[in-house]
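Hi R.,

Here's the chain you asked about this morning:
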Amino acid sequence: MFAAISGNRIALSTLVAAVALAVVFTAADIMPAASQDTQLLAYQVKPDDTPEAPWSAAWNARPAVVVLSAQNVTRPMGGGEVATVRVRALHDNQRLYVLLEWSDKSKDELVNGQNRFADAAAVEMPPTAGVSVPSFCMGDAQGSVNIWQWKASWQRDIESGFATASDLYPGGFVDAPSPADDIFLPALALGNPVAQRSRATPVENLVAAGFGTLTTASLQDIDGAGEWRDGRWRVVFFRPLVTAEGYPSLAVGDVTDVAFAVWDGSRGHRDGMKSVSQFMKLQLGVSARPEGAGGEGWWAWVLAAGIGAAALIAILWAFLVPLRSNE
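And here is the predicted structure, written out as tokens:
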């Protein structure tokens, strides 16, 4: 008799705890990695909704959760510490906006030292939507990809000015070579886009058709911005829906493939060392963004607290009532 009561109490407690945990996860918009969404819907917004700002209220719609893993196809391999990225998409019939959000305890925006690497993120699409898609790792010989890459170091260059080794070692002294001598700065002198010290945007438009083929695109029509708050990055990419031939032009109702990548500078991520996703579907919807669908307001935490309190009471009741009845 006592064993049966104990078993029932344990079963009830486990059930109540599981329900409470599920409610808390839902309210806080926390999802296990296995629950990846398979499609990203770009809601329609008005041009004055300011989706260019990473923390704008325009982004309150619930995100798609995308699973990331280490890049282990070619050297340098590694990454994978960023397990998931939350992705949202919007459009205003003229431009496509994509927002990436992920957890990162440190804001890594300086690359002015030998072992300093910046946080970064990227969006990848095939030039045209089709039945077969290229490799999600930089495309392949049968199918190229268009990549939009944002770097925290470029964001910092725009907002605070280009950082040099002198900023890292303010007490240092160098008598040669001269910082203005092109002989000692060939990449800068030749116009290498990665080496430039002034940028109009922290996002670069790239093309690739396999490993070792990544190239700066001749067309630079991608813009964006990133902002780090309380241990989370939000990065917005935006571009006209209709672009030049050879790049993915889109219209309302279109469906294309899209993949994502994230670099954590504090973990030494750079180049191929990154967290990457597989391709998923992106659809440009005709419906407006649902109001108040973010799941991140104060009411969510009130609901979670209420459910948690109810679960605690149920567990105590399940344990204490049978014990008192046996006295």
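One quick note: The first strand starts at residue 39 and ends at 44.

Cheers,
M.
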